[in-house]
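Protocol step 6 of 9: fold each sequence in the batch and record its structure tokens directly after the sequence line. For illustration, a two-sequence batch is reproduced in full.

Sequence one:
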Amino acid sequence: MKIKPKQYAQTLFEITNEASKDQVDAAVEGFVGLVAKKGDLKQWPMIIEYFVKIYNKTNKIAEIRVNSKNKLTTSHLNSLEEKLKKLVIFEGYKDFKFIENTNHDLIGGVKIEFEDQVIDTSLKSRVEQLKIKMSQN
């Protein structure tokens, strides 16, 4: 039976979750050896991607992609975090991890992605919404 990346990731999480650093190092080394022995090293990037998702979900960390025209300052990110904490979709999360992407096609504002949710406050999106409203009248 072929082991899927998500199954590997869950196993890796379970063997490292409450282990000390030395135990984690040994467990990961053994785990990588097992994955290699099974001929599944090509799945490693997906295994790590799933592992991070499992880790974040377990530890109540919201991994949020933020697209903006320019890199946001720490002050902007802190302000954004405070606003996001008030939204229902982030209820129960203890920490926020921002992954920033600069998109020079954006005129202003930000586009936020979390799991399958998108919050688009970009100027481009607002102009498109205004165009739709005007065409309906």
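Sequence two, same batch, same settings:
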Amino acid sequence: MKASKSAGRDATVKRLAAMPDAEIDYSEIPELTPEMLKTARRAGPLVPPGSVWEKETAPEGEVRYRVVRGGARAGAGRKPAGHVRVGLCLSPRAKAALERRAKKEHKTLSAVIEALLVG
């Protein structure tokens, strides 16, 4: 029976994880020169193509970049409905009655309770 690729890959990963750092061969990787380090920059997060970046300076003086187009934006998303979340403890009988009424009137439990309390 032929071994699967993932089983072979798992075995390779385990073998490499167990290898001491002293045995790693770095001879094929070129040394970093001062010129290379001058032009190096930190890689940022992956963003969709076409995203626009804006440069900003943090209070600590660190330069950061943020996406100004693409992804979540200020004002995006569902707007607040002007309601307040409240937790209730009801008897199973009261809950069942509210659920029946909500189903009969094609409303949510919140709408039924609010109609009963406020009118």
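Proceed to step 7 once all outputs are recorded. Observation for sequence two: DSSP finds four helices and two strands in the chain.
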